[in-house]
Each structure stands twice: as C-alpha cells, then as structure tokens.
Specification:
By secondary structure, this protein is an alpha+beta fold. An 8-stranded antiparallel β-sheet has the order 1-8-7-6-5-4-2-3, covered by helices on one side. The chain contains 3 helices and 8 strands. The chain has one domain: START domain (Alpha-D-Glucose-1,6-Bisphosphate, Chain A, domain 4), CATH 3.30.530.
Length: 190
Amino acid sequence: MTAADGPSTPARPGRVELTHVLPLDAERAFALVADVRTHPRWVPLSRGTFHGADGSPLHATAWKPGVGAEFTMVSGPFAPQGAPGFPDRMRITAWEPPGPGGQAGRATYLKLGPALLGEAGIVVVPLAAHHLPAATPREPVARCAVTWWEDVYLAGPLPRSMTAPLAARVLDLMIRLSLRRLDRIVARGL
C-alpha cells in the first residue's frame, strides 16, 4: 500500500473503509475491483459462484454484473480449489460505472447470509493524471482512488453491536491483504 492510502476510518463501530490509489484510469479500475468475477485473482483464498434470476448457477462468462445480479463468494484455506468454505451471498443493489467528465463509479452489494448480513461497496474516483519520474517525464499516468467499504455483522442470535466490531477486524485485514495483491497484479500489467 502506498503513502496515499487512507487509514481505516470507521464511521461507526463495525464499519471498515479503506481508500487506495491505483495507477489505472477509473474505468479499468472499476472493471477490476467492482466486477466480482475478478476477485479470486486478488482477494486471498476466495472463489465465486454466480446465480441466475431464478437462483440457478451460471458460468462466470454468462453472468453479468448489474443491479439485481446475485453471487456467492466462498472464502477458506482451500476454497479456490473447490473445497467448502465461508459463504458470503450477495445481491448488487447499485451499479454505476465511472462516467465521462470525472464521474465516480459506485457498486453496492447487499449481504444476504447465511453468515454475514449488511452491505459492502466500492467507489472509484478518477484523479488527475500525474507524470512519471525522469525516465518518461512527459508521459502522464492515469490514477484513481478506490474506496472499499464493508458494514457487516454476523447473522444469528447475537446482536449486531457485538458481532459487527469482530467482523470489521477480520474484514480490515482481508481488505488490506487484497489491496496489496491488487497492487502486484496492476504492477504486472493486469
């Protein structure tokens, strides 16, 4: 992570929000971070399954992100290889790719259980291009700020006030690790 990264700044107990600058234009960054089909590449120990409107499984290439689309991310030590893990079923409730004139892109995901409830989101804000150091002084590089936030709690008998802070600690670590992996992928040219 870079010095431009924002600290974890919870608006309330249990909310995690991290901002990270990527050397990508906002459209490419949004495609990489908001489209959950790419998450297994950079979110550790995860895999995705995608659902049609009737709940039936869809191949990742047939599934399209957008409002109403549903998916399940499964996390665990052997989840990428297909082993059981921690399921996190979600529905996209907002999907606004970055627009012309510097409009930010936003995606919001409603957590449907069975273990986590709440919301998560991605906001991608274009930043002014900057110039690389002396090697290529005239070549501007696109940049954007990616904010990933989670406001979740554990489903079940315990109150949100007890489980949200615990979930936030785990998610803070997961987001930080994911953003580091994302940096490495971007540095290799996607």
